[in-house]
Backbone:
């Protein structure tokens, strides 16, 4: 049973009637450009097949009622006008925040997802965007504005979940196109579709380390970047360069954070050039450099992730490469490699890598032109 069908069926069983529609929002994997979105930088995310589905129908009262099919059929019922943030961040936080911002009441929702939680594949942004799409669809076809939904979803992460993220995840999910990467300028929000060659695969491998952005000092990294920008006298690190960072009197930790951001923005440009030139060797070297910077300068990797990246890079060889993806402190690793090498690399990983808890390794393959596992309907 597909995710869309499972969500539609769960809605019908819970509420006693069929939904009026089902919205779907994919997750995303960031190919390169980590921790630069909140520095107004360039990023290169890609929507993935896994995502979040939200079935919906209108009611005659003023409340929103939400059912989480993946959390033991847990329910939440609230008036969007007076809804308060739950004591602990959870799925209710995102639903309440999106409903309050939309100003839409009188809706029943049923929610299900296929993104592993804590995987670094933006399950929370996917949830926010899917809820936003469902509420927009309930208002009418003209109400679904991807940019508006992305901005609302980012606000909910800040206000309702306490994660001061940039807008990469939300824009990639709301405005990205299936089977292609999205070059996003996080300052202007200009986008450009970047098609991957059809004989390349994107492999996403779970490290087995569940991450937590708030607990993992994500917000602290943002404060370091803001301190660097202030010391350099620029609006954001997007306006800095390596010479400026090298000449400034910065705290050593803050300096390392700034160097990563400046160089990572440049790596995004290099990666796009490599993709468009079909230079898989050059792209692989850029991915490896990105991981080394995230590990050594930005300090957001963990030993299990480093081990997984090393094993992937060894298995892939020079034709491609791997790096951690997402905010860090666990989660997933992304690799780009020739399609005809994917079976061999997968088998080698399944043989050699062991997650910290000993669980079976989870591997997802995304291919150019592959449609996500659901659509808005």
Residues:
């Amino acid at each position: 049973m597909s995710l869309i069908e499972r969500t539609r069926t769960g809605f019908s069983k819970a509420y006693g009637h069929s939904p009026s529609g089902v919205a779907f929002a994919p997750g995303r994997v960031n190919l390169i450009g980590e921790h630069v979105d909140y520095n107004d930088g360039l990023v290169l995310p890609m929507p993935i097949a896994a995502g979040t589905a939200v079935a919906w129908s209108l009611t005659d009262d003023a409340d929103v009622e939400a059912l989480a099919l993946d959390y033991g059929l847990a329910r939440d019922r609230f008036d969007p006008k007076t809804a308060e943030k739950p004591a602990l961040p959870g799925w209710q936080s995102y639903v309440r925040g999106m409903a309050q911002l939309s100003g839409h009441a009188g809706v029943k929702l049923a929610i299900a997802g296929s993104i592993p939680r804590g995987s670094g594949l933006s399950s929370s942004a996917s949830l926010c965007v899917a809820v936003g799409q469902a509420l927009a669809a309930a208002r009418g076809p003209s109400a679904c504005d991807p940019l508006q939904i992305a901005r609302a979803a980012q606000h909910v992460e800040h206000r309702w979940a306490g994660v001061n993220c940039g807008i990469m995840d939300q824009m990639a999910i709301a405005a990205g196109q299936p089977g292609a990467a999205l070059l996003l300028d996080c300052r202007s929000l200009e986008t450009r579709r970047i098609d991957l060659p059809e004989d390349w695969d994107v492999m996403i491998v779970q490290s087995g380390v569940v991450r937590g952005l708030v607990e993992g000092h994500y917000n602290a990294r943002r404060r370091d970047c803001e301190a660097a920008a202030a010391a350099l006298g620029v609006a954001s690190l997007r306006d800095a360069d390596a010479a400026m960072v090298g000449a400034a009197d910065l705290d050593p930790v803050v300096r390392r954070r700034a160097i990563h951001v400046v160089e990572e923005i440049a790596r995004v440009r290099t990666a796009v050039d490599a993709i468009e030139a079909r230079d898989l060797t050059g792209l692989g070297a850029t991915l490896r450099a990105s991981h080394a910077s995230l590990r050594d300068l930005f300090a957001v990797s963990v030993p299990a992730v480093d081990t997984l990246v090393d094993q992937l890079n060894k298995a892939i060889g020079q034709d491609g490469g791997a790096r951690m993806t997402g905010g860090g402190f666990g989660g997933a690793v992304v690799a780009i490699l020739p399609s005809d090498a994917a079976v061999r690399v997968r088998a080698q990983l399944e043989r050699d890598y062991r997650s910290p808890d000993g669980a079976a390794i989870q591997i997802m393959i995304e291919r150019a032109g592959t449609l996500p596992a659901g659509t808005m309907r």
